[in-house]
């Protein structure tokens, strides 16, 4: 509030834009809810009090080359469906276009727009028996363009596949919850169904292309469907029942706890493997070195031309440069070939084997053992005792030294 008691209005453009979009969304929801609660009666020729239309309206739609064969086969069925509403249609195979126009038999002024939508759907790959349903008053269509939402081609393909899901399960769930027909084709998503559901499907598709998984919206739709069955909650806010999916940022204490848990797991694994390591050593290994702060910017890196000037490559002719590049390439190939040959040769190296003693070696060993036993038997008892004493003294010295 200002000093004069008048409310202050924010002049920030972003604030105004957000406020306007919020108002439009709420108005749209209210309008759609009201429209869906009304009973829509079919438009009859008696409802047109003005008689025949004074001007001819026409629309043309291009179609891709691969749809030409299919459209030629089913064009009879398309003509028959539009004749019932007094709309004429033309298939131009030379320019690759389909056109619809009103005739003197047309009694519904809006049907030509419905016929145009039908042509668009057929051009985007929808079957004729499904596209004809858009001519009904309670059915609308929406063609969502998704081609320019993601720059990376691989990322775009993955996110588009996410809309379909494994074996089409996600797409089936969207269709069941919204009572819509959804077709993902190329850079567009074609949707047919009630007015209210088109907005839900558009939101799911656009959020999916912004890397928000469709399962979150599907869960929300399932909860909304259950809440709609309860008449007590008709005039209440459903925000307390709906899930709030937010990105959870870990606190510093939680990050530290996770880090310590990982270090303890590593310690246990190393103990089990028989390696002795302390907690401090592991912390030193995992700790990142802090950079020393300097107010000065880093030194400028040399350009490619500067490096060529230093090496003298800049002054070489094009043929000499090509020859040098070829030489480097050959040298690299030779090194790689040699390395691979050595790796392959390792498989053919025979392992070292311990040869078994021959018969003569066994005989010599037996003779030596027999001679030593005879010599021990011939030695007097005094010498044997003195030897034992010396052994005991040596063992004692070794124990005291260790």
What does this structure look like?
54% of the residues lie in helices and 8% in strands. It has a three-stranded antiparallel sheet with strand order 1-3-2, covered by helices on one side. The chain is mainly α and 402 residues long. Among the domains are: 50-137, K Homology domain, type 1 (Ribosomal Protein S8, Chain: A, domain 1, 2-Layer Sandwich), CATH 3.30.1370.10; 140-232, K Homology domain, type 1 (Ribosomal Protein S8, Chain: A, domain 1), CATH 3.30.1370.10. Pfam families: KH_KRR1_1st (PF17903), KH_KRR1_2nd (PF21800). This is KRR1 small subunit processome component. Residues 325-402 are annotated as: Disordered. Keywords: Nucleus, Ribonucleoprotein, Ribosome biogenesis, RNA-binding, rRNA processing.
Question: How are the secondary structure elements laid out?
Answer:
Elements: H1 13-37, E1 58-62, H2 68-83, E2 87-92, E3 97-102, H3 111-123, H4 128-131, E4 140-145, H5 153-164, H6 169-178, E5 181-185, E6 188-193, H7 195-209, H8 214-228, H9 252-272, H10 279-286, H11 304-311, H12 318-346, H13 359-378, H14 381-401
Antiparallel strand pairs: 1-3, 2-3, 4-6, 5-6
Helix pairs in contact: 5-7, 6-8
